[in-house]
Amino acid sequence: MIETRKLSNGVRIIVKRMEGLYSVAMGVLVGTGSAFETDAEDGISHFIEHMQFKGTPTRTAFEISDAFDALGAQVNAFTGKDMTCYYAKATCDHAAEAFDLLADLFLHANYPEHEMVREKGVILEEIGMNEDSPEDLCLDLLARATFGKHNYGRNILGPAANVKNFTREQVFHYKKERYVPRNIVVSFAGNIDPEEAFRLTEAAFGGLEDTPLVRRAKRVQFRAGNIVKRKKYEQVHFAIGFPSIPRDDDSYYAVQVMNAALGGGLSSRLFKRVREELGLAYSVYSYTSHYAETGLLAVYAGVNPEKAEDAKQAIVGVIEELRRGGITEEEFLRGREQLKAGSVFSQESTNAQMLLYGRNLLYTGEVYDLEKRMEELSQLTLDDVTKAIGAHFDLTKAAIAAVGTLADKLTL
Predict the structure, then answer these.
(1) CA distance 262 to 246
(2) Averaged pLDDT, 69-95
(3) I want to staple 87 with a disulfide (CB 3.0 to 4.6 A). Which of 27, 157, 269, 295 is the partner?
(4) What's the CATH superfamily of 226-404?
(5) Residues annotated as catalytic (active site), given as ranges
């Protein structure tokens, strides 16, 4: 059972009741992230996410975490390119208490100066850790090579110089523009009565002032950039990115099947050719990212520096074969079943359902419809996937990024 409601100030609520379970996942989703930041704000969405846990007028940072632990509840948050999410999971008998804590840290964070100084140090360490994670660094550089320095090309963590200099005034200015009721969705999934969920949300969020959302235009342009960062790693890590579709495109499911055949699993072409047949990489895969205006299909591999050129050529060969010959009926059916199974499996996770239904309502204003998704997948044809392949993989438009001990840039 799925029910929705909108508060008078614009906050939207969605509840998926999953009877027979003993837990409830709850999340507060905000339609903002690194893609909405200015140069001076680069990294501020992530900084705010951290600081929301660092104290309210009635609880210190330790008291917040201690209170969740006392309930046996889990709490966390993440920042993306266009969404920030704060979430908790609790047993049914502690759902109301956990939501009260989640709402308190979200609504009443007061940003103590000493906590800001301390958390800046934590985030600077996170930035350093990202620099030491070659796969993460490579994919961040691919986003930069693909979209440039703005919007979807931004690193979510932001540059260290920005983090060091963020002020309370900047934080509150950004929150005033983006953390507004009409840009917030509260999502529940699990064994909770929808009326109780509505009551809890009304009590906590009903008093928010209905301030306008300041809409920020994005400068989105796909660039065929080529970025190399030379660092002393044991491997060379490289990624190739192709323009793809926005998330609401009619060919969305066809693209997912195409990606499954290319590099989405152990039976994919990239895995079989580059790893199993040629032994050129331990990790090789493809994935897609879809946003409101555009999308990205990326291929990643981590290889021995001496084999980087061979691995790149092998990957390009797989892509060219796919572009010329399409996929087989067997690959099509396998990919379609993988998507169906993934949709069904996610129905068994309260966290996955909370995020799925909340995100869909935030992005589209509509309730996610599993039956419609399964019907659309059932109606998908091999010809649909062939058309999707034809719309991708133009090597003249591809971006590339690499990290490691490369003498020269990789070229396509």
Answers:
(1) 19
(2) 98
(3) 27
(4) Metalloenzyme, LuxS/M16 peptidase-like (3.30.830.10)
(5) 49
